[in-house]
Specification:
This protein is an alpha/beta fold. The protein folds into three domains: about 1-25 and about 150-255, Phosphohistidine domain (Glucose Oxidase, domain 1); about 40-140, Enzyme I, Chain A, domain 2, CATH 1.10.274.10; about 265-580, TIM Barrel (Alpha-Beta Barrel). The strands form two sheets. Strands 1, 2, 3, 4, 5, 6, 7, 8 and 9 form a nine-stranded mixed sheet that branches. It has an eight-stranded parallel sheet with strand order 16-15-14-13-12-11-10-17. The longest helix is centred in the first third of the chain and has 30 residues, at about 40-65. The chain starts with a strand and ends in a 9-residue tail after the last helix. Mean pLDDT is about 85; it is low at about 580-588. The structure holds phosphoenolpyruvate (PEP) and magnesium ion.
């Protein structure tokens, strides 16, 4: 038995076997084979090697025709296929360790790289790249076989253990088969964490080396509340967790019963609770948990699923379906919030600092087409119901000009083509960059609504990378700068009568949600599964008490003093259990 400790980001307990995914160019699965499966696996590997040999010979022949003697570079790769240090060793590893071919190749490649790095001769050192090329080819050929695991077709129900999951991998993932999720990277506002929460899948992130410490197939307990991961628990421990899992189910059922009750404070202030969603299927979950609309639909996940831009027609159908499902409630679609790697199709890894890089709106001028297609679909869908269009990552009024230009352009085209659309669909901004917060009065003149994206706002205000577990302790939603900034935004929005909501993770944390209400926010959008608990907290307090409390917090100097003040004030009014975002779990 081994205990690991990370950050619990999605409450609940998951129990099941581990599926370990290593992130290289393509994800490499580390699977434990059934005892009698190694022969089939070596055969699979040998078929992939033979397929690679034929391909390399064909390439070499073509090059001989076109380039003459330079075709020799492929001789080196062909020789590698016969090198006992590569394929033969991989075969041995499959047989002796009972692992899948992909994993065996992956670990041998790592060893070979180490070996090549030791050479003084630059030419020999560079042969390291040939190994990657050859192994990449074999992996591709392995991927073509029917038995190849993929994120979209997992072989069984698993606890997923991954280094990092990109949004496109997360979108491709067969979530039905994921019992729980454990990652080396991440923090509570990391995208995979948000997704796990909205799908109600227990998750622990920020473990740093879980992928190397957890053997595939080992039995795992994931405690998304405490951030604990137990590898191969003993009998007693397992039973304690099973009992806790059952208690949770009961608790969840009780919370579900609040669905039909209004989210209203004791003194009658109505709060609108909406759901954040990444997939169209989540509309049903949103309604089941009592959401009164979709406050944030992260449209970039549409791209991940197919790894291609969805067409105007595909988007139109999807947006209309969402409107129909949520009617009479509104649906807020956020325009592509992507990095340039996704835009130019290179899917290139992190640039210097992706959070501060060429992202979202900043890409509109260089890559207008995907935005144009999306806006056409959105404006057309808006003709059939209450659709709101939200632009992320605006940094001030000049960004808004670009947005307006593009919208006007798209409207002109639609009019010219005689297509039905709604020219005055509500246009809003996610306020998540400090410079937008500082110019909110100017922005208010030009938009129909605002939504505060606290996940990024906190990251940028406090200069804390939300995906870096090493600085997770500095990520303080109750930092005075955060509360003061939100208060400033809300004041201006109210003065100028612009609807304002909060769609970051603060909205789904009952404790922080009450603070937001105290600051004057009346609309919150969160993972659907968080709605019942936030509603229970709202129904237990007076809004005027929250306003007084928020006012008094604004003059306190630190997040911990602010938290202590709120806890002591609310201790009587709100039962502790409904303030905690997470559930009590057995002692570990
Ligand atoms: C935010 O930044 O608060 C937000 C809601 O968007 P995301 O988490 O997708 O960046
Ligand atoms: Mg954001």
């Amino acid at each position: 038995m081994r205990r690991l400790s990370g950050t619990g980001v999605s409450s609940g307990i998951a129990i099941g076997p581990a599926l370990v995914v290593e992130n290289s160019a393509a994800p490499v699965f580390r699977l434990a084979l059934a005892p009698d499966a190694s022969e089939r696996e070596t055969e699979r590997l040998s078929n992939a090697v033979e397929a690679s040999r034929l391909q390399l010979q064909a390439i070499k022949e073509r090059l001989l025709r076109d380039l003459g003697p330079h075709a020799y570079i492929f001789d080196a790769q062909l020789l590698m296929l016969d090198d006992p240090l590569l394929v033969q060793r991989a075969m041995t590893l499959v047989k002796e360790k009972g692992v899948n071919a992909e994993w065996a190749l992956h670990s041998i490649t790592e060893e070979l790289h180490e070996f090549f790095r030791g050479f003084k001769d630059a030419y020999l050192r560079e042969r390291s790249a040939d190994i990657d090329d050859v192994v990449g080819r074999i992996l591709l050929n392995l991927g073509d076989s029917a038995e190849a695991p993929s994120l979209a077709h997992l072989p069984d129900r698993f606890v997923l253990v991954a280094g990092d999951l990109t949004p496109s991998q997360a979108a491709e993932l067969d979530w039905e088969r994921v019992l729980g999720i454990v990652t080396d990277a991440g923090s509570p506002t990391y995208h995979t964490a948000i997704l796990a929460r909205s799908l109600g899948i227990p998750g622990v992130v920020g473990l740093n080396d879980a992928t190397s410490l957890i053997a595939p197939g080992s039995n795992l307990v994931v405690d998304g509340s405490s951030g604990g991961v137990i590898v191969d628990p003993g009998h007693e421990e397992l039973e304690a967790y099973r009992a806790a899992q059952e208690r949770e189910r009961l608790h969840e059922r009780r919370l579900q019963e609040t669905r039909g009750l209004p989210a209203e404070t004791k003194d009658g202030v109505k709060i609108v609770l909406m759901a954040n969603a990444e997939f169209a299927e989540e509309a049903t979950t949103a309604l089941r948990y009592g959401a009164e609309g979709i406050g944030l639909f992260r449209s970039e996940y549409l791209l991940g699923r197919s790894r291609e831009w969805p067409s105007e027609k595909q988007q139109l159908d999807l947006y209309r379906r969402l409107i129909e499902q949520m009617r009479p409630y509104p649906v807020t679609i956020r325009v592509w919030d992507l990095g340039s790697g996704e835009m130019d199709g290179t899917h290139a890894g992190p640039r210097v600092n992706p959070a501060l890089g060429e992202r979202a709106l900043r890409l509109m001028r260089r890559f207008p087409e995907p935005f144009r297609t999306q806006l056409r679909a959105l404006l057309r869908a808006a003709a059939s119901g209450p659709l709101r269009i939200m632009f992320p990552f605006a940094s001030g009024p000049s960004d808004l000009r670009i947005v307006r230009e593009l919208i006007d352009d798209v409207c002109r085209d639609l009019r010219r083509d005689g297509i039905e659309f709604r020219a005055d669909a509500p246009i809003g901004l996610t306020l998540e960059v400090p410079s937008a917060a500082a110019t909110v009065d100017l922005l208010a003149r030009e938009v129909d609504f605002f939504s505060v994206g606290t996940n990024d706002l906190i990251q940028y205000l406090l200069a804390v990378d939300r995906a870096d577990p090493r600085v997770a302790g500095f990520y303080e939603p109750l930092h005075p700068a955060v509360l003061r900034t939100i208060q400033g935004i809300v004041r201006v929005a109210r003065e100028q009568q612009i609807p304002i909501s909060v769609c970051g993770e603060m909205a789904g944390n009952p404790f922080q949600a009450l603070v937001l209400i105290g600051l004057g926010v009346r609309e919150l959008s969160m993972s659907a599964t968080a709605i019942p608990r936030v509603k229970a907290a709202i129904r237990a307090v007076d809004a005027c008490l929250l306003a007084r409390l928020a006012e008094s917090c604004l003059v306190l100097p630190t997040a911990s003093e602010i938290e202590a003040r709120i806890r002591s004030e609310l201790a009587v009014a709100v039962p502790e259990a409904s303030l905690e975002e997470t559930q009590p779990s057995p002692r570990t």
